[in-house]
Amino acid sequence: MNIFGMVVERLNEVDFYNYKVLCGEANEIRDHLVTCIENSKKLFIVTLNSQIFLKALELPEYNDAIEHATFHLPDGAGVVWAIKKHCKIITDRVPGIDTMQYLCEESKTRRWKVYLLGAKPDVVKLAAEKLIEHSVDVVGYHHGYFTDETPSREIEKLKPDLLFVGMGAPRQELWIHDHIDLPFKLAMGVGGSFDVIAGVKKRAPKFFQRMRLEWFYRWISEPISRSSVPVDVLKFYFKVIFDGKDGNCKKIH
Ligand code: UDP
User: Fold this and answer.
1) In a domain, 130, yes or no
2) Rounded average pLDDT over 152-180
3) Which residue's CA lies nearest to atom 19 of ligand 1?
4) Is the CB of 194 under 6 A from ligand 1?
5) What confidence tens digit (pLDDT) does each residue in 20-45 have?
6) N or C: lower Cβ tally within 10 Å for the chain?
C-alpha cells in the first residue's frame, strides 16, 4: 500500500513509449536490480521523469540512447501517474538518489566497488569522501567537466561494479550509452545526486517527496530554473494525456 492508500502491484515490466519501466514496490524494484547485478547481467538504468522524457522527444540520439537502457525506473511523479492512467498499473515512485543510496548500502556486504563520475571537482571529491566515511568502497571518482577519455581509461583499469554518472540529462545517459562496453555491472545516471550527498544542495523535504511535489520544491527553491520545471511538467502531462491511449503504455509481464 502506498501513501495514497493504493495497493501497489508486484513487480511488472511496462512498455512506456518503448522504454522498459520497472513498476511495483520500490524495495522489490531495487532488489530486482541487486539480483541482476549478482547474476552478472549488465545494467544501464535510466531514472525516467518528465524532463528526460521531453528531452528524448527533442533529441533523437538521446531517445535512441535511453531506448537501449536495460530498465527505466519510475523516478518522476508524472511517469507514475501516466502508467496508472494508461496501463492501470500502480507503482511506487523510485527516485534515482534513493536507489543510489540503496545500492551503496548493498555494496558494503556484497563487496561491490563504486565509481563516481560527474559534478564539479570539489563536489565529487566531497561526495566520495562522505561515502567512504560510511564504509562504501569508492575506488575512484572524476568530475563531470572533462573533454577527453581520462575517466573511461580510469574505469577500464578500476573495473567498478557500480558506476554512478551525475552529469545531468542528456549528457549522462549519452555518455553511458557511448561507453557501454566499459567493465561495470551497473551504470546509472543520477543527475544532481552528488551535490546532495556532498551536502552542497538540499533535497526536497520529506513532505514534498511524499506528495510527489519534488519538482515544485525545485521550482520554488531554484530561481534560474523557474521557467523550465513547471513548463516541462505541464508539457509532459499534455503530451501523455493526448497520446498515451494509443498503445504507448502496455504491460510486458
Ligand atoms: N554536470 C556535470 N557536467 C556537465 C554538466 C553538469 O558534471 O557538463 C553536473 C552538475 O555539476 C550537477 C549535475 O550535473 O552536479 C546535475 O545537474 P542538474 O541539476 O542540471 O541535473 P538534474 O539533477 O536536473 O538531472
Assistant:
1) yes
2) 98
3) 192
4) yes
5) 999 999 999 999 999 999 998 899 99
6) C
CA 96 to each of CA 92, 145, 194, 226: distance values in angstroms, whole numbers, following the listed order: 13, 21, 11, 22
Containing structural domain, residue 21: 7-94+208-253
DSSP assignment of 144-190: S---SSHHHHHHHHH--SEEEEES-TTHHHHHHHHTTTSS-SEEEE-
* Same domain for 124 and 76: no
Residue whose entry in the numeric block shows the C-alpha cell 541482476: 36
Residues 121 and 189 in one domain: yes
Asked if residue 102 is part of any domain, the answer here is no
The reply to whether 11 and 82 lie within a common domain is: yes
24 and 73 together in one domain: yes
> What pLDDT was estimated at residue 116?
98
Report pLDDT digits (tens) over 79-103. Answer: 999 999 888 899 999 999 999 999 9
Q: What is the pTM of this model?
A: 0.90
Answer yes or no: do 157 and 215 share one domain.
no
Contact between 50 and 204 under an 8 Å Cβ cutoff? The reply is no
Residue 174 falls within a domain, yes or no? yes
Residue-averaged pLDDT of the chain: 89
Cβ of 42 less than 6 Å from ligand 1: no
Atom 1 of ligand 1, residue of closest alpha carbon? 167
